[in-house]
Amino acid sequence: MDIIVQKFGGSSVADAKKLGNVAGRVIDAYNEGQSVVVVVSAQGDTTDDLLEKAAEVNPSASKREMDVLLSTGEQISMSLLAMTIEKLGYPVVSLTGWQAGIVTNSKYGKARIKSINVERIIKELDSKRIVIVAGFQGLNKYDDITTLGRGGSDTTAVALAAGLHAKACEIYTDVDGVYTADPRIVKNAKKLNDISYDEMLELASLGANVLQNRSVEMASKYNVKLEVKSSFEKVPGTLIKGVSKVEKMLVRGVTKDDNVVLLSLVNIENTPGKAFKIFSMLAKENINVDVILQSIGRGDTKDITFTIDESNAVTAVKVLNDNLSMLGAQSIECARNISKVSVVGAGMASNPGVASLMFEALYDVGININMISTSEIKISVLIDQKDSEKAVRAIHDKFNLA
Amino acid sequence: MDIIVQKFGGSSVADAKKLGNVAGRVIDAYNEGQSVVVVVSAQGDTTDDLLEKAAEVNPSASKREMDVLLSTGEQISMSLLAMTIEKLGYPVVSLTGWQAGIVTNSKYGKARIKSINVERIIKELDSKRIVIVAGFQGLNKYDDITTLGRGGSDTTAVALAAGLHAKACEIYTDVDGVYTADPRIVKNAKKLNDISYDEMLELASLGANVLQNRSVEMASKYNVKLEVKSSFEKVPGTLIKGVSKVEKMLVRGVTKDDNVVLLSLVNIENTPGKAFKIFSMLAKENINVDVILQSIGRGDTKDITFTIDESNAVTAVKVLNDNLSMLGAQSIECARNISKVSVVGAGMASNPGVASLMFEALYDVGININMISTSEIKISVLIDQKDSEKAVRAIHDKFNLA
Hints:
homodimer, alpha/beta, Carbamate kinase, VC0802-like
């Protein structure tokens, strides 16, 4: 049995017409003789509508109840897609996260998939049915509904592809692949035919907005062949796989992320263990810290500066403020008007010229760099948010990515 | 543990303000030291909105997928009510039908509750939590979501009250009890303090719109003390229990039902077994037939006329049309502009004057009677829909119910 997993995002299933388009894609694959498992997100603005309803009754509702509420979004879209496929005369069944056997840990709102019991899906595929699965959700050991957090439908799709030993996992989205930069910012950005997991991982975590980070990690771990394709146009997408072809091009893409907040703990006591305390506090709240900069101690005190995702800013500031005296810090500063701009590419580590070329591009257009962070395959800089699009264009040009 | 089950309908949980009101009711009962289980319907127009979405993609969607879709309505309202109660500082947990252990048969869209595994609810009540349960839904033996059909939340509430051996089941609605007639039609209609299960059953099935038929049957079977109360005003409601107090009043109420369709099979072969065939066909589609009239045979042919609920008309006509020749019938006629008006009361059977008094009331105001049906405790007549309100008022006056 050749199984294929297809994932369609919220904008691809937003209304009856778009559902019809998705149904066509699904049926094409089914008619080619493949067993098709489809993962869907909630329709268009459903999730935002539900969040608004919740905010009206309780702005600080428990995460358990938020998950009960939000998981209805995918349940609505999965049943509507199933109905659309029924209308076209094909056998189909829709399954919620718990019906599809998706078991997660109990971190409501940000749960991680622990295992998938694929028995029910296999039974339905054996009966020649197209199987529609709700993305973004699962069940924990208490038999309670959990959600994987925004973008979690990608993770659902990859996890199902891994669990079902699918021959491919196709992620359909409103762009037709992974580009060297955001085509809305850089006119001559070029679509990549393929890219490695590691490169995609850096691009995803840096705000390329195409695939969720954890889904790429999982694809890499279980060697799932991922393809990013357009929901609307029938053109080849970008293949994400183990090792990208050796190409001359060192830099694969330029990205920017505006959802970055810079937090600084100022005049913190210059004693050991402070950084550990800060970051373990944040880890307990499930907050990922990205770029970290620690100033050289000025005698008794030092500063610690780091970035987090904007969605975690309120929680992070609260946690740190509650523990200011314990941390021996004077104050917290929070800067929201910044962006992280990054270049990504597997060949970078062995080629020191990349960093200087990037900095030169920024210097050429007069952009000041606040912080720098590097890894094996990426270089990121923090700059003023107002300069971010200009920065992306300048770097894209400098590396001749078009 | 004194358990109380409270059920709130869709209009009672329609928005944030009304949810706040419901939360207040629930917390009052909790603060009195009772273990509170709350059953909710979908908010206001949610079900209609979902039906519209489905109709857009597939007007004849499978009932399985319809149930997947519609069950989200209660999941949304239950989580919002739980959040509202959280905000007020009380421990609460919301449970879907399957989480609450509600097992049904597999008749999608009209499922019947087979059993309730109350383990989870008891565990939550033992932890002093208020438990909110989604009405209207359950799980069948295939682990698929089912719904009980419109008004099924009443049945959920009574079934839970029976399964939990609750001391009472309170049905909160937008009227404050059961009246001798619809107060919107009859200005001086009187609220009943109590009424027997049998009488309520006739009133419910005759369109009193207060309680769903099956919920009263179930309450009678398991001797659940039911009370119909107002969601908005704190006044005593109507108690529904085993035997009503002996009262002089023979007739307890007058009702009308406009959702009645009259079907006639004309010139059907006058041979045995025709009625059996017709009604077993309809039973297979889960369609209840109400008043049945068979004409005296005219040699080779006869007519069979009967009423069904309007919601079943399309299916019934289709089934019968598909089998016209097998039934040996000439045609089907379908009349929609009729109403059923009924008087209900336990003392009726032993008092033949009731029927003639009712017919006299109709004669007084010049209303023609098309069909008549009687039982131990009710008399129903089919009349033109345009006359139905006038008929209710005339009968209410004639029996001095005010």
